[in-house]
Amino acid sequence: MSRKNVNVFSRQRSSSLKEKFFANRDRKKSQSTRARIQSTGGLRSCSASEAPSLVSTTKYKFVKEANVRVYTLDNMSRSAWEKLINHTRFPWSWDTFTVVLGDTELHSPTAVGVFSEPIPYINIDTWMTISIPHLSFHLIKLVCNDASYLIQAPDAYQRDRLLHSVEWKKKVCKYKKSLSSSSKPETTLQELQKLVKLTLDGPLYIDDTHNTLLDIVSNLISRNQDVVNSVSNESLITTLAPLFEKNEPSIEICNFFTKHCRDCPRSRVVIDMFMPVVLRILKYNTNYGKSMWLRTFVKEYIQALSMQNDGEEAVRAFVRNIHGPLSVCPHNRILNNLVAVCLAAIYDSFSSDSDNKVGKKGKHHGNFIQKNLVSRSRENSNTSENCNDENRDPRSTTLKDSPENQNVPEKELWDIVATKYSKNAMTSKNNNVVPEDEPEKLQTSKMNVIHNNEQKNPQEKNAEESSPDIKTAILFAQVLDEVSSISDWLSALAVILQPVPFQKIAMQDDNFLRYVVQIIERIAANGQDKVVWCLTGVREQKDGWLQIFSPQSNLCQDEGVLFTKMTTALLASAKKTCKVKKFVTVLVNTCLDAVLLLALRESDIMNEVLCLILEYNLAEGQRKIQIISTLRGTTIGSDFYEKLCKQEMILRQKGGPDEFTLPPRSTDQDLHKFLSSGSYGNLKNLNLSFTRISCKSAEIISKLPSLQHLNLWSSSIQDLGLRRLCESLNLTSLNLCETHVGDDSIRCLKDMTNLTNLNLNSTEVSDTVFQELRRSLPNLVKFDVSYTYAWPATPEQIQSNNAIPAKPSSDPPKKLEYKQNV
Fold it and tell me: What percent of the chain has pLDDT over 90?
């Protein structure tokens, strides 16, 4: 036999041996599997009743769509299961689909094969998980009316996710159908409780299922209004309250909560169940303009708190609770949302109904408000059957439910209700239900009311409609007062209140103004500069709290005490931030008469302000004479004026040198001794280079009348001192080389309009600030910005990587001058 024939024979023999080996292995595996099936009674499966219940410790994310493999079973006999086991090894036995879990059915985007038609959830009778021994298949069996389906998931976790998602959809469809068809209040409440429990205790995360449940409850409230009104409000709210600890209520549910707060303000449910809902709204709401119903609900909740036995303390406790026990509130939106609710409530309290019907942002908001007003009037005309008499609000009535008034128009009926339960009637009658045994009196009073309304003048009707709700305004003023007592909220509240967001009619009420004064006193007592400056106007032509409570204003009721406190705080802050001239200018332009009046009453701070006005030369002519006469009219003013004159006489006395150079390493005390030793009214050039002159000497330097050239090279001057110099001096040349000044103070150099020579070598100026400064100083001809971030780089410097040096050298820098053509 040739070698070639031997090789062919050996290959054939090896292949036949392999076939026999695999055939024997398959036969043994089939026999062992058949034996296990016979011993265990079939495949290991778990029916719907034996499947893991919805009360599970493991939480899964809801599956909206999944890529699975599907096998269709038409016969459920044992031979079919054995056939399935044999075919599960081959991938062509399964069809791959993308299954989408819709609202009412299972379907696939491809719509072929098994999913050529959707599978409704109502046709699914049984669902279970199946595990095949010694085979890594993760199966779900869905038993329907006409067929059964095996769905294979990639792993056990994905299988459980899909199973619980299908089970959730199946049960939601069931409860939705029962709730929509139910006409009994008890059945509706029971089904709703089961659905809520299913959502909370189920294995799916509530974040994935709450939207479906909220839609069901919203549709139930909006469509089955009769059934919902028959259900106890407190039981329904108690059932729904756990859903809103992590979710925001919809518009229908929020209006339902608002109605309960308005009708039953003293109900215990308001305090126990609504607090988490309100807290979540204040934490996470970002725009009340798009969800005005949330703002209305928070407003009604606060009003309900005020109607408790100790209403004022309840409101204060509410503000402290939403802030939290820490010194700083961890949620930044709470303050803004709460203040927005308070300001809107105060504005609505002093606005007429006709103004509220038209929103400022367009027809959408106006129609929405008008719709809420109509629904509110209709809701208030019905008695809440679910509230006890002790919890019922006097604003509700059963007038429309009487048979005599079924044909009365809504507008006339509302006029009857408003007239009957006016303020006089409220004080004289406690029963707010019209007796049924007096139909003739009711009909007569109704006709009289309609006749009187027709005879009223339009002005009288407008006056009645626009009567302000003082109690509501005072309530929310108390809330703002409590907010201002919290230290970390005061700064943000001061910024919000800086534009004075209250109407004039609100500021004219004494009780409301009392709380506003307390808030302004806390702002004035705060030591932070950014808080104190909120007492001034937001712009020059806008009056701030300083002008509103000045003695020359009609709102001042304390003889200028609050105005003095605000002036003291602002002047102290101005001295720290070198804004004395700016603040004194504001007083001269807006409150000079008030300052003169309080100076005559021997106020120390006001006399100091008058001296500052003379020092900065901010008054001329008759105003200046009046200021001097006021200072001389009191003992305290005379002392201030004599001190000012002595200081001005020394510094402004003509004579002395034109130039002076202070020795190196001289201190602030040396400069003070030098300037107080003689007359330096002619001093034009002062050289303080390489000295230890600091910000303390900026005050006396700024009072030199003829100073034009100042050299502060390598001195200890800083940002505060430079800002003080820029307030009073208008120099021609300034040298700030190697000083610790930055953008904040260098930006103030734009006030020196006569500046022609500026040296900023080795300072912390940036290129942006320097370019702004160049545009603001048209007379600037020479400037030096070497060794700064504003140093312009030439092509040679860019190639040598020396465009912006990291740190200036210790040697005296080489002066670079860049000339600008004017």
Answer: 23
